Amino acid sequence: ILLLIRNPKDIATSFYHFSNVMSPLPSYDTWDDFFVAFMNKKMPWGCYFEYLSKWNKYAADENIMTITYEELKENPALGVKNIAAFFGIPLTEKELQDVVDRSSFQSMKKNSQKTHGAFGNVFFRKGAVSDWKNFFNEDQNKKMDKTYEERVGGTILGKKLKYDVYCKA
């Protein structure tokens, strides 16, 4: 099992935008309204911190590879190489580079209409790390930091997220 996780601040930011363009999901008039719902476990697919806590029970299992969105953004080639090795898929250097090129956010966004039809524009917005800084106010930042520490801070997955690197203002 490949478990892809992302820092909770960017998850919240991304899901805010996704919710507001995906009609079956609740939309929010403001970021503040969304943030309250996110922190109070009122998301259609549940609480992200509970999700991480549940998966954390299996994080050390040899049949599970955890990788972060941020890792893949930092070094896509290493990420693809590690994923291929985990699944026992040999890749030539050319195949590796082809996978890296085709799985880049820019490439996936460019081809989103072909791969995802009408939903292509919905699934691929920015693909950035730390966009949360454009939305969180100081109070929200403190609340998220506190919840992170209480819920997943000292766990295997919590450490994997490198919260201090990606989520500190």
TrEMBL record:
Q: Which domain of life is it from?
A: Eukaryota
**Which Enzyme Commission number(s) are listed?**
2.8.2.-
Q: Where is the Sulfotransferase domain?
A: 1-155
One MF annotation (Gene Ontology) recorded for this entry = sulfotransferase activity
What InterPro entries does the record tag this protein with? Answer: P-loop_NTPase (IPR027417), Sulfotransferase_dom (IPR000863)
Which keywords, in A-to-Z order, does the entry hold? Transferase
As for family, the record states: Belongs to the sulfotransferase 1 family.
Q: Could you tell me what this protein is called?
A: Sulfotransferase
